[in-house]
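Example record for the data management plan.
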Amino acid sequence: MPEIEHTGLTSRQVQSFIDDGFVKVETAFSTQLAEQCRDALWADIGLSPDEPENWIHPVVRVASKASRPFIEAANTPRLHQAYDQLVGSGRWLAPKGLGTFPIRFPSPQAPGDDGWHIDVSFGSDNPDFMEWRANVTSRGRALLMLFLFSDVGPDDAPTRIRKGSHGAIARQLMPYGDAGATLRQISADGYASTEDCAVELATGSAGTVYLCHPFLVHAAQSHRGQQPRFMAQPPLLPAGAFDPALPPSPVQIAIRRACGLTLVPEDGTLRQSSQA
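Corresponding structural encoding:
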């Protein structure tokens, strides 16, 4: 099996992550691993790539996978270096698997899950999903990640991304402080503050990974192509709580810049400043 390059992100890619809220990492894991993972997912859902007559649903979901190919795909040297560059060395937990997997099939039916949203990160003990929360320090999530396990073109239901939308969400979350806002509160206006953001499609070859800011607004869409799209959308989990004493990571720099924040060393708080 050929090795994936160990090359990390360039300074331009890191800056693009801060500005746009995401970075595309090509050949993040091998096509051989992608094929092994697809085979496992086909087996899980009881369908076959050779029997399209049985692809009757627009989307079939697999919750999580923790077998060797999935762990290896999430933990290549190239990805580990990128995690360090965006989140900070020692500030993230190595993934022990991947999930969830919204496997999308060509279909004239609407998928029913294609609204704009962010992925909230704590409060999941509440049975009402709309009461799950996010806060301005992104408690519980270091990154949103999109792992492509099949080739994804413009017609293959690529995830839609609103470029720069993470900044608007950071500003929206700031007044709620550490307690954060519920998904119901965040989505109350239909993400109107991000409507003018340019939309990018998460396309790429199998083995591509999009590393996204936790506040990035994104959405699914209908599949108009020929072959199913296999993708995982896991979080990268933080190793601990936000520590203002540590140098800010690109994830935190993007939040501070969007909110006009500066760190006050005396008490470790973040405050608005016209000079930030």
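Summary line stored alongside the record: The first strand starts at residue 22 and ends at 25.
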